[in-house]
Description:
Layout: H1 4-20, H2 25-33, E1 37-42, E2 47-52, H3 55-65, E3 71-74, H4 76-81
Antiparallel strand pairs: 1-2, 2-3
Helix pairs in contact: 1-2
Amino acid sequence: MADPGDLKELRRRAGIYLRGIGLTDGQVSGFFRSKRCRVYELREGRHLRLSCFDRDLNRRLHEKYGIGSREFRETMWTRTRG
């Protein structure tokens, strides 16, 4: 099980991308509370995986960031925090 502090940081990082497509703070926290978005840590904290179960949200994430339809893998943190 992930440390609650780690999960909070992962959600904060995922929220940056969700806000980038126009979601408000309330919508972002609502998605996490409703389990419509889940965030996972991959490879010792250097990658972020965001899985969303909402078609419109997936479409908007894909248009803005060019990500796949069901998940996003963040690789920039590997370079910036390396």
